[in-house]
Structure formats: structure tokens, C-alpha cells
């Protein structure tokens, strides 16, 4: 452990930014730092975080699973980056969606809206893609608009292409070949006490739905511990994201759980010197900006450090790429130095709204980690 990093994260735990943090820093394929602090669960019981605590990775699913699978399929052929989504999904073979490509989904340039509570519009997972397909595009939003709908669509597209549900495809093509045992969708009930807890109910999403006009003030409870489709119990051991939960815990934008060490093993697949799943040249997709001159620099699935206000910090190279998860997770990769930076927190747990914006914490963590690496070498 690094004393400076641990002290800093302990200060943020004491300030109640998040109850726990697990961090991992690696260089040239080797783990250099790996530590755990705080409580993975505060309520209904107190459980300390450990280096092998399992976290809800939230939107890191977009890169760890969906983006990586997309790159593998692109590499194998018949799944072109410039291919029309409507050629694979009949729900997108309509007048306005026919312009959308796989590249548009993977770089968040499709003009799909940023978010929608699909669980309020349809009654079954199978209806989700049809609902997205008939939702009007928004040409008034920024060209690059980060959107869960993009990766729900991309995940569904992959499922249709391989004729298998996303979790089974991930297990077969990613998790098993990498020897991962603690990375999965829908963790088994017996693992619950090893998993960091999340929010008490879905109060954040409920309030968001009210604010955006999707929902009047919440009505009475429904059978099964939900209220207007929102959980009202401690979310612990199941996915926090409402759309992913509605979709059975398996979606292209959220749903995967993992540890810091197994996240590192997947992160190695994005680096040409260490990947075992891809051809080294395919890794260029993750550090190449497909959105030059736009409001964000985006590669395949990732944001690049050259994006203004990215969470890379001041010490990562401009070609670094990374992603965040709403629950408090973060992964950044610096291909110039073969470095990986992972910070896992559960900022949605044991916290009244609003949740703390921890982007500055992520930046400072990266700066401290690079300083440690450079002093070590």
C-alpha cells in the first residue's frame, strides 16, 4: 500500500464521500499497489472492505464486457465498425435510426438521448430494444452525449449477432479464457457478504424520474418490495442500475460485478503488449479518437484523457483512456507506460442524496499513483 494514497482515501472516507475504497495500480503487467480501506457494508451490518471485495462495476460494464466483446467481433469480421445498426436490429431499421452505425453507439455519437427509465415504458426485457428504436433522436444535444441507451443497444446487437445472451457470451469469450472466477452478472446469493453494498432503494432514480417528468410523485408500494417499479430495500448483491435490474441483471451498459484484481486482468486486454484475447493492432481502437473536433474525445467505448475535464488527472499521457461507474468505480489505462489505475468505491451506500461527485478524488488518486511510480523507478 502507498501511505499517501491510503491517507488520502481514508480522509475521503472520514468525510463520507464513500464508505470504502479498494485501489490497484499496475505497471508493465505487474501489480505495484493494491489496498483496501473502510467498510464495504455499513448497514444492515458492518463488513470491512478487503482487496478481494466484489463491487458492482456499474458502467464499467460498457468497457469490460460490451466494448471488449465488440472489439473481438470487429476483429473477427462480419461486425464492421461502420456497419448500420439497422442491418442487425430490425427495431433500428426505420427512417431516423437507419443512419446509426456501430461506431456511433460505441462512441456515444448516435443522438440517442442520455437516459430513459425503460422500466416505466415496457413490461419485459424483450421489449426494451423496441422502445429505444421508436424513441426520437435528439439533434439538439451535444454531438457526443454519453448515453446508457447506446450500450443497451450495442449489448442487444451483440446478443442478436452471436445468438446468445450477453452474460453467456461474456463467460465464453472473456471470463473463462481469462480464468476469471469473481467476475459475473447476477452474483450468487452465497457471495453476498463479499460484495460492497449500494443504495438503500432506488431513491436517486425515483427523484430523477420525477424531475424529468417521467413520473408523478411516487404512489403506493407494489408487491415484491418495489414502489412504482423502484426497489425500496437495501440494494446489496444485485445490480444498482434500474434498467439493468429490470433487464434481469444482464445489460450492455451495467450489471457486471468484479474485484480490483480481476478488473486488472480484463484491463490488460486493452494493451497491445499484454492482451491474450485480441490482436495487438486491435487495441489501437481503444486509444484512437473517433470524435476529433467534437465536445469529447472518444475511442471505442472509452473516453480519452485529452477530453477537457476528464478524470485522468494531470499526470497520465494524453492517449490514456478510461471509464467511470455510477456506483463509484473507475478504470484508467495509460498505454504510453503500460499502466493501469483502478479505484473502486461504493459512494451510493449509506449516504443521503445527493451522492458526492468524486471526480476530483479520482484525479488526485491518479496523480498520487503516478508520483509513486515515478519515485519508485
Topology at a glance:
Layout: H1 3-14, E1 20-27, E2 30-41, E3 47-48, E4 55-56, H2 61-76, H3 102-106, H4 128-133, H5 148-162, H6 166-175, E5 184-185, H7 203-211, E6 221-222, E7 226-227, E8 230-231, H8 242-246, E9 256-258, H9 260-267, E10 303-304, E11 321-325, E12 329-334, E13 339-345, H10 359-376
Antiparallel strand pairs: 1-2, 1-13, 2-3, 4-9, 5-9, 6-7, 7-8, 10-11, 11-12, 12-13
Helix pairs in contact: 1-10, 2-5, 2-6
Structural account:
With 377 residues, this protein is an alpha+beta fold. The chain has helices spanning 3-14, 61-76, 102-106, 128-133, 148-162, 166-175, 203-211, 242-246, 260-267, 359-376; strands at residues 20-27, 30-41, 47-48, 55-56, 184-185, 221-222, 226-227, 230-231, 256-258, 303-304, 321-325, 329-334, 339-345. It has a seven-stranded antiparallel sheet, with helices on both faces. It has a three-stranded antiparallel sheet with strand order 4-9-5. A three-stranded antiparallel sheet has the order 6-7-8, with helices on one face. A hairpin with a 4-residue loop joins strand 12 and strand 13 (339-345). Helix 1 (3-14) packs antiparallel against helix 10.
Amino acid at each position: 500500500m502507498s501511505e499517501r494514497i491510503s491517507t488520502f482515501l481514508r480522509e475521503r472516507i472520514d468525510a463520507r464521500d464513500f464508505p470504502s475504497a479498494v485501489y490497484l495500480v499496475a505497471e508493465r503487467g505487474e501489480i505495484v499497489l493494491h489496498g483496501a480501506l473502510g467498510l464495504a457494508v455499513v448497514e444492515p451490518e458492518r463488513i470491512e472492505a478487503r482487496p478481494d471485495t466484489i463491487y458492482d462495476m456499474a458502467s464499467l460494464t460498457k468497457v469490460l464486457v460490451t466494448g471488449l466483446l465488440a472489439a473481438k467481433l470487429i476483429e473477427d469480421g462480419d461486425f464492421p465498425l461502420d456497419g448500420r445498426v439497422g442491418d442487425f436490429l430490425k427495431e433500428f431499421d426505420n427512417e431516423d435510426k437507419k443512419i446509426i452505425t456501430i461506431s456511433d453507439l460505441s462512441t456515444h455519437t448516435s443522438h440517442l438521448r442520455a437516459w430513459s427509465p425503460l422500466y416505466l415504458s415496457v413490461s419485459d426485457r424483450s421489449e426494451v430494444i423496441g422502445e429505444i428504436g421508436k424513441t426520437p433522436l435528439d439533434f439538439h444535444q451535444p454531438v457526443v452525449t454519453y448515453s446508457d441507451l447506446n450500450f443497451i443497444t450495442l449489448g442487444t446487437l451483440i446478443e442478436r449477432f452471436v445468438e446468445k445472451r450477453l452474460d453467456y457470451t461474456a463467460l465464453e469469450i472473456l471470463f473463462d479464457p481469462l480464468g476469471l472466477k469473481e467476475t459475473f452478472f447476477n452474483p450468487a446469493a452465497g457471495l453476498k457478504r463479499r460484495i460492497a453494498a449500494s443504495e438503500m432503494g432506488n431513491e436517486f432514480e425515483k427523484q430523477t424520474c420525477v424531475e424529468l417528468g417521467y413520473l408523478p410523485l411516487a404512489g403506493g408500494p407494489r408487491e415484491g418490495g418495489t414502489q412504482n417499479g423502484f426497489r425500496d430495500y437495501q440494494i446489496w448483491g444485485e445490480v444498482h442500475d434500474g434498467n439493468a435490474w429490470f433487464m434481469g441483471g444482464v445489460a450492455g451498459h451495467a450489471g457486471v460485478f468484479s474485484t480490483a484484481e480481476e478488473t486488472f486482468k480484463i484491463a490488460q486486454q486493452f494493451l497491445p503488449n499484454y492482451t491474450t484475447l485480441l490482436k495487438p493492432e486491435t487495441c489501437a481502437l481503444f486509444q484512437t479518437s473517433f470524435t476529433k473536433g467534437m465536445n469529447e474525445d472518444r475511442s471505442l467505448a472509452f473516453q480519452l484523457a485529452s477530453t477537457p475535464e476528464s478524470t485522468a488527472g494531470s499526470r497520465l499521457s494524453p492517449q490514456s483512456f478510461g471509464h467511470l461507474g455510477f456506483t463509484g468505480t473507475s478504470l484508467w489505462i495509460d498505454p504510453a507506460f503500460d499502466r493501469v489505475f483502478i479505484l473502486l468505491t461504493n459512494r451510493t451506500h449509506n449516504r443521503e442524496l445527493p451522492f458526492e461527485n468524486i471526480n476530483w478524488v479520482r484525479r488526485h488518486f491518479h496523480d498520487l499513483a503516478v508520483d509513486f511510480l515515478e519515485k519508485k523507478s
